[in-house]
Amino acid sequence: MRTDSVSDRSPRNREPQKRPDRVRQVAYRVIRQVTSESGYANLVLNKALREAKLAGRDAAFCTELVHGTLRWQGTYDAFLARCVDRPLNELDPELLDILCLGTHQLLRMRVDSYAAVNEMVTLTRAEIGHKRSGLVNAVLRKISQRAFDQWIDSVAPPYDEDPLLHLAISKAHPTWEVEAFARLLDDDEVAELLDADNEAPRVTLIARPGLSTVDELVEAGASRAKWSPYAAVLQGGGDPGRIAAVATGRAGVQDEGSQLVALALANAPLTGSDAQWLDLCAGPGGKSALLASLVEQRAGRLTAVEPLEHRAELVRANLRAIPGDHEVLVGDGTKPTWAEGSFDRVLADVPCSGLGALRRRPEARWRRTPADVAELRPLQEELLESAINSVRAGGVVAYVTCSPHPDETRAVVDAVLGKRADAVLEDARALFPDVPELGDGPDVQLWPHRQGTDAMYLALIRRS
């Protein structure tokens, strides 16, 4: 990840010759906050759009500037390295962000080359000083001399010589991530997945059972989704908060894949009691709200556990419209305060690398490293152990990750179940009715390029 350095900014250098374009300025400041302060693009951008009162085309343009620049950052760095006379790590990070923002407009947006360069020079003068504007002008003019595919040909090896490295550069993913995906998919499907990761995500809504309906969301301008009976897609993006059901908590924003894995847990066959459910890693609470809505209809109760207080507050906010005596605990899921076997169904949606949600978190691909996957592995195994201990005999556990990386999915399940004689892995595919291409089982891996969802993984485990 890039790190900031101190740059010389005198008051004289801070005076622009003319005002920069407001939308581009907002986009640049969002990118700076994401790259310099490890902010989350979706959260920072939404706040910036509200504060700047950008809507309609301006909001859409700003969103593409931010998401596109962050998504293609590594590829643009490879292009820019050919256009400057020093290593990129010697450039001030704020200058590099401006160059990437300009490169995105020139190569992947329908922006006139002259306008793109001129606006970025003006922005440079306003944000980081006159003396940098000459370099920005020269570099971006070099970038504009080739099309995107021509730049790829100049910096990436031919596909037949090194297909994974070619895909990593041409489709803007770190090589280690491409190699991980290639352990599960053939080269052609890897390319399809990377393309899907680079598409702008849809805004998917959930009509919480018993509180709202998909018909209500459709009447508010959404359309029915493909797989989940509670899902709708907000056409053309926009602010979901303008929909009354969302504003009141009767509906929410939730990817269809997240809905499907929670529904699979809720619909798994169960004999005996079915009144006590546990969400072991609850924050920020989207799946908790769906499970609470469902268990409420069965006269049951959800207990949601979250170790961080501020995320526990998010869970409570998601549950605010749901009736019933549901409980949110601030605590460590690996150190239960309840008796063993207390629950009938347990969701363990464990912390993971998040490689399954790269459409929604464009910056995440460049932040994560193989070390992050290795560091999370012990916690994932501990949480799964705790989940199995927490469920009664005959009860079911859903082990879930928002990552397709094999070291975070089946490898964790095999490691835990290999040490236990009281838990078995069941075939979960029947719990995804009408959803195609679920693989050989018994676990389920959803994919952006197959199902159009985040790459959610689910293993269904029954305690015996």
UniProtKB/TrEMBL annotation:
Gene Ontology terms: biological process: regulation of DNA-templated transcription; RNA methylation
Residue stretches making up the SAM-dependent MTase RsmB/NOP-type domain: 177-464
Binding residues for S-adenosyl-L-methionine: C281, A282, G283, P284, G285, G286, K287, E306, D332, D349
PROSITE patterns associated with the record: NOL1_NOP2_SUN, SAM_MT_RSMB_NOP
InterPro entries: MeTrfase_RsmB-F_NOP2_cat, MeTrfase_RsmB-F_NOP2_dom, NusB-like_sf, NusB_RsmB_TIM44, RCMT, RsmB/NOL1/NOP2-like_CS, SAM-dependent_MTases_sf
GO molecular-function term, one example from the UniProt record: RNA methyltransferase activity
SUPFAM superfamilies, alphabetized: NusB-like, S-adenosyl-L-methionine-dependent methyltransferases
Keyword Glycoprotein included in the entry's annotation: no
One Pfam short name: Methyltr_RsmB-F
Database matches in CDD domains: AdoMet_MTases
Protein name stated in the entry: rRNA cytosine-C5-methyltransferase
Source organism of the structure: Kribbella sandramycini
Organism lineage string: Bacteria, Bacillati, Actinomycetota, Actinomycetes, Propionibacteriales
